[in-house]
Amino acid sequence: MKQNTKVLVVDDEQSMLDFLKILLTKAGLEVQTARNGQDAFKELEKDRYSLVLTDLKMPKINGIDVLVKAKSVDPLCEVIVITAFGTDEKAFEALRLGAYDFMKKPFKNEEVRVVVRRAIEKRRLAEENSRLKSALSDRFDFNELVGTSPAMQEVFDLLRKVSPTKTSLLILGESGTGKELVARAVHYNSPRKDRPFVLVNCGAIPEQLLESELFGHEKGSFTGADHSKPGMFEEADGGTLFLDEVGELPPPLQVKLLRAIQHKTFRRVGGTHDIKVDVRILAATNKDLEQEVQKSRFREDLFYRLNVIQVRLPPLRNRKEDIFLLAMHFLKHFSLELGKPVKGFSKEALNALEAYGYPGNVRELENMIERAVTLEQGELVTMSSLPKRVEKSLITEDMTIPLESQDMINLDSLISRLEKQALQKALERTRWNKTEAAKLLGITFRSFRYRLAKYGLDK
After folding, report:
1. Residue 457 pLDDT > 80, yes or no?
2. Ranges of H-type helices in 47-108
């Protein structure tokens, strides 16, 4: 058994106290005893116990009272009651009040060990589950959604308003903008946070299996269905169902999903009776669903059912002011996870990160920082740890085309000017190493030399 697990044994018979203390101490448990209910109350107020073994019949304060007290102090505390009468009504009352089990005197040593071990394991699993829920709540708190840009602050304000409700949300945004993170944050900041959050990737499940995954199936409903299986709607009962990439749903399933959302009932594949559920629907897509509706690829009535509240996540390139915050957020996370003493970014690396366009959005930045922390040997992320595509962004960051001017633009002259600027920046970036500068620009060394000569930069 787990060492240093505290157990309180309560009995008005000293011989029973001594017996149980010796037995449980040999099993590796830390045991405290109490001769009556009053002493047990004092111990429960003074210290925390994983398990309480209490005699049922004691004067003044009995085992039921000790059970109620233990549960009021720590709901996760497991209680085993001991009785000389196996069918005593009080023993069954103890079970109804939350006791783990009861043992009838006289009992064998092994019986005690088994019941105690199982009770402690149940307590351990309950603690682990509680920690996981707490960690999830912390991880998906709105404070974990990083961004100070006006666009993201607007998103956060909306999420705080809608999270406590039952209203359906449609989360829109390019791939990598954090749609799943937003959905989880909404769930874990809602009254449903202690109920399941079930994710369905509508684009990753084969069409022929998707209906069964969503609604479940009955035994024998199709080849290979050798047992009944609940679907994700049932698993999410009381909680949240997140339909990721909902725009990929085939038309026949769009009809069934609409019916399930409207009536809050559905039938399993091969089923003959309706199943009622209480599920909040969150959906996400990187498609333009309104355009899909116009092209008759997505049902208009389903779109309006999902689109009660719309949350649109801006791409990272449109909120450049958030790049540093996000980069530092990921840096701290991966430095801790990988055990690396990386604390920040060199000025050059940070400039490159802020100049880059991020077609993969926040997910691309996250992967980039993980790569950099993995490769970096010092305390700062340097250019050498970043992908070449990021380095190239420095070359073009200041090269703008003055199309807002009212004057006529000579295209040949403009192209020549931009090309010369790119050559100069590449040379500066590589400290005038022509071979590296050519690689940086993605051209051959021969072509690079020709262009240098063309603009008089080969001197």
Report:
1. no
2. 63-73, 89-96
Kindly report which listed range (4-8, 259-263, 293-297, 325-329) carries the lowest average pLDDT score: 4-8
Phi, psi torsion values for 400, nearest 5 degrees:
-110, 150
> Quick check: is 183 in a domain?
yes
State how far the Cα of 243 lies from the Cα of 214, in Å rounded to an integer: 10
Report the percent of the chain where pLDDT is more than 90.
50
Q: Which two tokens stand for residue 132?
A: 């996981």
Rounded Cα distance between 192 and 459, Å, is 70
The residue assigned the tokens 């009535």 is: 301
Looking at residue 110, which CATH number applies to its domain?
Answer: 3.40.50.2300
The 3-state DSSP class for residue 315 equals coil
| 389/371 Cα distance (integer angstroms) | 14
Tell me the CA distances in angstroms from 257 to 32, 200, 229, 237, 246, one per residue in order: 57, 13, 18, 15, 11
* Residue where a domain terminates, one of 135, 165, 187: 135
Given a contact cutoff of 8 angstroms between Cβ atoms, the answer to whether 32 and 11 are in contact is no
Q: Which domain range does residue 433 map to?
A: 411-454
Confirm whether 1 is domain-assigned.
no
Q: What pLDDT, in 10s, does the model give residues 155-192?
A: 999 999 999 999 999 999 999 999 999 999 999 889 99
Q: What's the domain count of the chain? A: 4
Indicate if the alpha-carbon torsion angle 69, 73, 76, 77 is positive or negative: negative
235 and 335 in a single domain? The answer is no
Q: What is the pLDDT of residues 367-410, one digit of tens each?
A: 999 999 999 999 999 988 999 888 777 665 555 555 554 555 56
Residue-wise pLDDT for 187-217, tens only, equals 988 999 889 999 999 988 888 889 999 999 8
DSSP state of 165: S
pLDDT, position 142:
59
Residue found by looking up tokens 């989360």 in the block: 171
- For residue 375, what is the domain's CATH number? 1.10.8.60
8 A C-beta contact, residue 160 and residue 185: no
Please write the tens of the pLDDT for every residue from 119-144: 998 888 777 766 655 554 445 555 55
Rounded distance between C-alpha atoms, residue 298 and residue 383, angstroms: 45
Structural domain contains residue 401: no
Cis peptide leading into 106, omega within 30 of 0?
yes
Classify burial at 371, counting beta carbons within 10 Å of its beta carbon; exposed 0-12, middle 13-18, buried 19 or more: middle
Same domain, 18 and 163: no
